[in-house]
Amino acid sequence: MSGWWFIGSLGEALFFAAVFLLGVFLSSVLITWQVMSPSTQVIKVFHGFWLFLGVSLSFAILGVVGFWYRVLKVVTSDEHREVIAQRRLVAEPARKQSQKIPPPNIPDLRLFTDSPGARLAFRLPSHLRENSGLVATGIFAMAWNAMIAVFIVYAAGSLFASRTPWQLLLLLIPGIYIGVQSARLFFRSFVRTIGIGSTTVEIEDLPLFPGRSYRLEVVQYGRLVIKKISVRLVCEEESTYHFGTDVRTERQIVYSQEIATHGRDRIDWGYPLRLECQFSVPTEAMHSFQSMHNAIHWKIIVDGEANRWPSYSRNFPVVVHPQPQPNRTSAAS
Amino acid sequence: MIRLLGLQPTYMPGDSLEFEYRVTNVDDASIVAVESSVCWVTEGKGTEDLGVHYFQRLSGNSLASIDWSIAQRVACPLPLSPLSYEGKLVTISWCVRVRFFLSDGTELMAQQPFYLGTVTRKV
User: Fold this and answer.
1) Counting beta carbons within 10 angstroms of the beta carbon of residue A34, is it exposed (0 to 12), middle (13 to 18) or buried (19 or more)?
2) Alpha-carbon gap, residue A213 to A222, rounded angstroms
3) Nearest CA in chain A to B53
């Protein structure tokens, strides 16, 4: 804990104290003026009064929360603060006695086991990273084109009224170009997604335990000629860190095991490609882990190469639990 | 000073961790608060995360009855996870930490690392 750290924390605490005092001062002036002399009040009720009061009170709340957070940072140890944070404001609902308490800092299994499989026990959820680009492009294209449509209607109205809105027309030219390009990009991604077809992965059991074997079934739908399809079990470390004002996330694969591979084949509607395979989690494998800035993920990755389509890779996260410990009391006896 | 009472600094999930701590060359009257904790920290490229498994804070009247020339013994069962791990981007380390807060504002801290589980390196 250096002197600069102390000065910085003190400065932050003073800033938030000033924000709190400003909020309290503005709110009290506003309320007192309204109560004592409503006729001379500049900001009348229903004409900005509630908005101004809301802003003032939010200053006060922001200030008090920020001030106490900074004070706690200075006067309490890291461990004490963590313990305070664990005692949440809203208590978690009590678990039923039949419900097993999951091991700490391991992703919740319910997210992975809520979809039963057709042949094996569970159908794994697909990781959304590859679809997020498509969704983001779609939302942008829709919002942008809706905005451009409103401006076009406005410009058309002006033209019918014998007025030529030159500035708006000049702005519409690049606007329409961006709208067309974004829609094109979206539909190209969309066709690529539905053209290759969906991939489903079913697994025999969850959670996975080190040293045990599991059956897996991968089904590739669509209408295409596959050049190669491979299935891998991967362990990936993930770290999030601050770099200047940026927040960056770095990922690194630390373990990769090929489970199955399949060569050239034709897939058609109603005749999907089915790959049945078996794999083992290494005996000395680290379990899945999730904390605020760091994580260890285990996943099944399906990589495919198809004729006339770009190669693709789809992720299906799984959860690995620590090796169950033998009953120590019985072992001792 | 912290001393783990196990024969070796490797524990399995569910084991009982026993340790003792003491402080020397400090006037007992100047001790304002004492915190002992069993926690894990992540190290490596990412921002450091901290998880506290066991925490005890002694202050006020509860300190008065303690003779600091005698080691204070603490025992707590260890959790199932996270296990100690040394990866490429992420390292998870377990330790016992003790902090003494003195009346002049000084803070004395000692920590003793230990391993939880036998998975200490990447697969």
Assistant:
1) middle
2) 30
3) A83
B81/A104 Cβ within 8 A? yes
Domain segments of chain B: what residues? 2-116
- CA dihedral in degrees (A118, A278, A199, A231; nearest 10)? 180
Nearest CA in chain B to A239: B46
For A85, A88, A95, A132, B56, the CA distances from A92, given in Å and listed in that order, are 13, 8, 9, 31, 22
* A243 shares a domain with A309: yes
Q: Chain A within 8 Å of B52 (Cβ-Cβ)?
A: yes
In a domain, A104, yes or no: no
Asked whether A290 and A215 are in contact (CB, 8 A), the reply is no
Q: How far apart are the first and last CA of chain B?
A: 34
Domain count across chain A = 3
Q: ipTM, 2 decimals?
A: 0.89
Whole-number Å distance between alpha carbons of A99 and A111: 15
What residues of B are in contact with residue A107 (Cβ under 8 Å)? none
Render pLDDT for A204-242 as a digit per residue (tens, 0 to 9): 998 999 999 999 999 998 888 999 999 999 999 999 998
* Residue A97: strand, helix, or coil: coil
Q: Which of A86, A242, A286 sits opposite B119 (nearest CB)?
A: A286
* A42 part of a folded domain: yes
In angstroms, the CA A135 to CA A189 distance is 10
Tracing tokens 């009064």 back to the chain, one arrives at A49
* Residue-number span of the structural domain to which A185 is assigned: 131-191
Please tell me the pTM assigned to this model.
0.77
Q: What topology is assigned to B2-116 in CATH?
A: Immunoglobulin-like (2.60.40)
